[in-house]
Amino acid sequence: MAGRFITFEGIDGAGKSTHIDALAQRWRDHGQHVVLTREPGGTPLAESLREQLLHTAMDPLTEALLVFAARRDHLRQVVQPALAAGHTVLCDRFTDATFAYQGGGRGFDPHVLATLEQWVQEGLQPELTVWFDLPAAVAAERRAAARSPDRFEQQETAFFERVRAGYQARCEQHPARFMRIDASGTREAVWAELAARLEARGW
Ligand code: TMP
Predict the structure, then answer these.
(1) 141: CATH
(2) pTM, rounded to two decimals
(3) Residues enclosing ligand 1, CB less than 6 A?
(4) How many CB atoms lie within 10 A of CB 94?
């Protein structure tokens, strides 16, 4: 039986990671086998590509190709086997991030991204995508208090407004798959909304 594939998205500083961890714990406590993974990354090859993506300057096409190369390896090695075994896969970012960052942020042609998406995923899509949404200026304030920034986190607020608009566009294209969560409140408020929305689905 196929497992459940859930992805989590948002601009840097949206605070999604703590909620993904909490959700994994909650479902494990209920006896589910949960695979917690991330993109870019999740396999040795994809993690090494992640290092390059976060720290080495490159042109937008190279960036898009590396993101999808990492994704292909991750899907083949981790995600597809886990889903085939009936496990729940929680993935911190997936292809919507490519449309948002490379498409919206960098201005890369979304038609090319859609072609790569088709080649790499062969029709596989998440069952649910939780989008932690907040204004770029609020996320920038949160990031300022955090660790030293990588190549994406160093971008100006206008870049993240374009990324956010990229997520909004994907949300409008895939309304049945997307769950938008207002991430501008406290951590407790965001968790309460997420938990309530999932419970409303019977999850
Ligand atoms: P993370 O810090 O949330 O793990 O994400 C790493 C960075 O990679 C983040 O700034 C967004 C970026 N990214 C892309 O630009 N394109 C993608 O397809 C993915 C998955 C991430």
Answers:
(1) 3.40.50.300
(2) 0.97
(3) 12, 38-40, 67, 92-93, 97-98, 101-102, 152
(4) 25
